[in-house]
Q: What sequence folds into this?
């Protein structure tokens, strides 16, 4: 199995580990919604996903979705106060 396939499988398994009650009440964003939120292209999100970086995602059939709670956690973890902190790739 290719490296990026293993990472995708791991992320899908993480989504499946969520309790059913939480999954039903969870808010999901589409690629387009997340790209607009961060003012980046869908291609950038796709490239990050292929490389195994970026925010965790779920797949429902062919549809890619991002849990809003994961997006908020990713944004919080990548918020910096100084340029010496490494900067923020998605803002």
A:
């Amino acid at each position: 199995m290719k490296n990026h396939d293993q990472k995708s499988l791991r992320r899908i398994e993480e989504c499946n580990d969520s309790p059913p009650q939480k999954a039903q009440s969870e808010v999901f964003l589409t690629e387009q919604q997340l790209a607009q939120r961060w003012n980046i292209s869908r291609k950038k999100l796709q490239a990050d996903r292929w490389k195994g970086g970026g925010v965790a995602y779920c797949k429902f059939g062919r549809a890619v979705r991002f849990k809003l709670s994961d997006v908020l956690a990713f944004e919080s973890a990548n918020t910096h106060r100084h340029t010496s902190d490494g900067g923020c790739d998605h803002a």
